[in-house]
Amino acid sequence: MSAVAAEVADPRVVLSARGLGKDFAGFTAVNDVDLDVHHARIHALIGPNGAGKTTVFNLLTKFLQPTRGRIELLGTDITQTKPDKVARMGLVRSFQISAVFPHLTVLENVRVALQRPNGLSTQFWLPLSSLDRLNARAEALLADLGLTPYRDSRAADLSYGRKRVLEIATTLALDPEVLLLDEPMAGMGQEDVAMVAGIIREVATQRAVLMVEHNLSVVADICHHVTVLQRGEIIAAGDYATVSADPRVRTAYMGNEE
Ligand SMILES: Nc1ncnc2c1ncn2[C@@H]1O[C@H](COP(=O)(O)OP(=O)(O)OP(=O)(O)O)[C@@H](O)[C@H]1O
């Protein structure tokens, strides 16, 4: 049994795709993908190299326009919506570490991120009360993500794992309903993997998380739902115990496990 098999009914669906497909010049990269992502649940998208995981991510965030299918966010059809609007509606993709400013401190990075959704960055002069609110929110975000001890460290001086957590913190400044993480454990040592996994679990108590992840022990540990792609199509879906016992999944992963 997966450590996080859902014992109770899943909360509401916040992001769903039906019949999602993408062709590139006649090559079908993604075909007939159905997906339901739930509030307060961690959903993994897994599959061997070239299975279509990144393409599905790009379709959901609207960085790519689907060839077929329909996507709904919080009950609204976003199939034709532009990526910036989708982000403002609450579907936010965590960019890679380069989104963090290396020479700013941890606190400064979070403050910069917080100024964006509040529209404060466009203001020349800020009333003291706005700054106080901003500082309080920044400190709260740092505390939530275990970054308080590093608040005055330059981002460049953080460990790889902490940089990833800071990057997640800047994304959370937008207060997303759905957070998409692209291989959050990539390139990390075991200690950082455990720390970041704990943070993602915490973050997901307030929102949905959809992640592409190659580290299957992390998927087994923290993900409530797993969708397995192969050659652009779903070959299995369910909790980790269910999909890992599926003969098609075992065959797909033979020789591909990392
Ligand atoms: N812009 C593109 N033009 C043509 N083919 C593409 C394009 N983007 C992706 N593909 C193809 O679509 C398929 C799925 O690619 P995708 O990157 O989504 O897979 P993935 O599961 O994310 O792989 P990986 O685990 O290696 O990152 C691959 O065969 C890839 O070559």
Automatic annotation (TrEMBL):
Q: Does the keyword S-adenosyl-L-methionine apply?
A: no
Q: What GO MF annotations does this protein's record show?
A: ATP binding; ATP hydrolysis activity
Q: Which residues form the ABC transporter domain?
A: 15-256
> Which terms are listed as keywords in the entry?
ATP-binding, Nucleotide-binding, Transport
One GO cellular component term of this record is: plasma membrane
The record's annotation in PROSITE patterns points to: ABC_TRANSPORTER_2 (PS50893)
Output the Pfam families linked to this UniProt entry. ABC_tran, BCA_ABC_TP_C
- What is this protein identified as? ABC transporter ATP-binding protein
